[in-house]
């Protein structure tokens, strides 16, 4: 975020700086780079969407701490093979992103792929489980095969907790087989995982099968918290970019939306647009979306992450013997929730 550009008010339509893949206005942005990559078809004639990420970490507003950790835990080792040899570190295993919903986990994963110039395959574990019920192991295998054939590739496994807490639904032995299959794929026993970088995401790391979090697997974790002020300004700017606005002070709005998630900020922008439109309908006079509309919308839309933090709080209190949630505990303390 260029803060200088934010000094004072800005008017008019802001040109889009990037295209978040999950923007509600255009849900279909994933680019099927069929010209670069053929979609991979498995035995069951399914295709995994292989994207070329169009965003990099520069498009992620704020979140400097997360970016720094991404660099240390993931991008740095990747860029420095000689240091890896020196310190005897392999690239095996993946990075687990966790945090409240709507706060940028998927967005960050895409940005990492973009940063590496790698292909990006994203799939939710729930899809693996339900879309092809009965052949989930095969699906996982095909998924990793697809990633290998597109290397360098970031393989993003969303909702990875589904492999833990859905255990009762599929019967524990079936789920155990699936976890084992994922472990096999992660360990690269069946195939060479060179150039396949696994990122996983969850809102509920405490539900994840512990076997998946052992060394060499999803052994590094990264807490993705609600957007900080700079991130909130970037998110609001994005959601207002194609709307008629006048006199919007992004910095003030960002300051007034502490604890709001990216999704909440999208909702705020929507609500403000509704206010202006409602006025236009009743008065017959079209007007711009104003700072007042935005502030009124902020009052109406409450941050949605409270429920998540309530759960997180009990985990930090009662489930943090090993210290794996120290980051979370530190944040909760800062917010005086612990
Ligand atoms: N730091 C950020 N900079 C810009 N946009 C962001 C940022 N964090 C989140 N967003 C926006 O918020 C939306 C929701 O984030 P998403 O990655 O889908 O959350 P999660 O995967 O954690 O549920 C994204 O589509 C993105 O547009
Ligand atoms: Mg997501």
UniProtKB/TrEMBL annotation:
A biological-process GO annotation = cell division
Positions of the AAA+ ATPase domain: 91-228
> Which InterPro entries does the protein's record reference?
AAA+_ATPase, AAA_ATPase_domain, AAA_lid_3, ATPase_AAA_core, ATPase_AAA_CS, P-loop_NTPase
Q: Which Gene3D superfamilies match?
A: 1.10.8.60, P-loop containing nucleotide triphosphate hydrolases
The record's keywords, sorted A to Z, are: ATP-binding, Cell cycle, Cell division, Coiled coil, Nucleotide-binding
* Chloroplast keyword on record: no
Q: Name one GO molecular function term.
A: ATP hydrolysis activity
Where is the stretch described as Disordered?
11-40
> What range does the record give for the signal peptide?
none
The domain of life for this entry's organism is Bacteria
Protein family (similarity comment): Belongs to the AAA ATPase family.
What protein is this chain from?
Cell division control protein 48 CDC48
Q: Which organism is it from?
A: Winogradskya consettensis
């Amino acid at each position: 975020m260029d803060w200088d550009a934010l000094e004072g008010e800005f008017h008019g339509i802001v040109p889009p700086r990037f295209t978040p893949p999950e923007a509600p206005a255009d849900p279909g942005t994933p680019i099927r780079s069929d010209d670069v990559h053929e979609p991979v078809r498995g035995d069951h004639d399914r295709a995994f969407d292989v994207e070329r990420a169009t965003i990099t970490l520069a498009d992620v507003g704020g979140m400097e701490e997360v970016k720094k950790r991404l660099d240390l835990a993931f991008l740095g080792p990747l860029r420095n093979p000689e240091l890896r040899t020196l310190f005897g570190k392999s690239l095996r295993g993946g990075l687990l992103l966790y945090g409240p919903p709507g706060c940028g986990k998927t967005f960050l994963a895409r940005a990492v792929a973009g940063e590496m110039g790698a292909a990006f395959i994203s799939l939710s574990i729930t899809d693996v489980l339900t879309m092809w019920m009965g052949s989930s192991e095969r699906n996982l295998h095909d998924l990793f095969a697809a990633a290998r054939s597109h290397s360098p590739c970031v393989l993003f496994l969303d909702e990875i907790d589904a492999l833990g807490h859905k255990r009762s639904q599929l019967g524990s032995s079936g789920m155990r087989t699936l976890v084992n299959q994922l472990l096999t794929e992660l360990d690269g026993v069946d195939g060479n995982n060179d150039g396949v970088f696994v990122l996983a995401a969850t809102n509920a790391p405490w539900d994840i099968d512990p076997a998946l979090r052992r060394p060499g697997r999803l052994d590094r974790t990264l807490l993705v918290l609600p957007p900080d002020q700079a991130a909130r300004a970037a998110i609001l700017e994005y959601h207002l970019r194609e709307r008629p606005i006048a006199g919007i002070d992004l910095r003030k709005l960002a300051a007034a939306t502490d604890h709001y998630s990216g999704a909440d900020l999208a909702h705020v922008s929507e609500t403000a647009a509704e206010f202006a439109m409602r006025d236009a309908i009743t008065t017959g006079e079209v007007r711009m979306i104003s700072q007042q509309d935005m502030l009124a919308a902020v009052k109406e839309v409450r941050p949605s992450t409270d429920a998540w933090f309530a759960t997180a709080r009990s985990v930090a209190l009662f489930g943090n013997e090993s210290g794996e949630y120290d980051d979370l505990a530190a944040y909760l303390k800062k917010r005086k929730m612990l």
